[in-house]
Amino acid sequence: MTAFDTAWDLMKAPYHGTTSDRLPSILTEGLKPHSADEGHYADDSTSRRNYGNKKMLFSTKNPKEALGFAMLALVNDKRKKDWVAGGKMRYNEGDPKPVILHFPDEMAQRHYRPGSTIVPSGFQFSEETIDPKHLSVIFEGDVDLSDEPEYGAYFGRLLDQFNEQKLGDA
Asked: Given strand 136-140, what is the order of strands in its sheet?
């Protein structure tokens, strides 16, 4: 495989956003599909329309979008543990870090918009576990959180780190 082939595979391949506390089990057992009840959004009844009763593993072709989903996963988990009504949630060094995983394109299927078999939504899904040997960690956001920033500042720092890393890899 040439360097171009490797770069092309990375560019077109699906990305999945998660958090660092889930990474050890993912890298041991694989990236597993889950039901709406088992996911980050289990208390959000509107999320069930995306799954039905099936176990799904979602991914995207856009690594920055995967970073956004990783951050949403962190927000939802943190909200369940640290939510203070009327307060502002702050992030600190002890929180899990957003992570972006990559796996080969042929392991995801296209997800079509409801009622359409023509226009793909941009998301992909799999109903199968992705074996750890096919997974690569392409980003683990580890930015300074010593000032306990709010969401916007934290996400901005992650994007800066991501963009610097991508430029450094080029």
From this structure: 109-112, 120-126, 57-60, 15-19, 98-102, 136-140
Q: To the nearest 5 percent, what fractions of the chain are helix, strand and coil?
A: 40, 20, 40
Give tens-digit pLDDT for 46-93: 544 555 667 777 888 888 889 988 998 888 888 777 766 666 778 888
Write the burial class of residue 30 (CB in 10 Å: 0-12 exposed, 13-18 middle, 19+ buried).
middle
- The amino acid that residue 34 corresponds to is H
Q: How far apart are CA 97 and CA 153, in angstroms?
A: 15
Q: Exposed/middle/buried for 114, CB within 10 Å: 0-12, 13-18, 19+? A: exposed
Return the pLDDT at 58.
80
Q: What is the model's pLDDT at position 121?
A: 53
Query: Which of 5-14, 116-125, 136-145 holds the top average pLDDT?
Result: 136-145
> Angle at Cα 158 formed by Cα 51 and Cα 138, nearest 5°?
65
Q: What is the pLDDT of residue 57?
A: 78
Q: 61, 12 in Cβ contact below 8 A?
A: yes
Nearest to 39 by CA among 68, 80, 93: 80
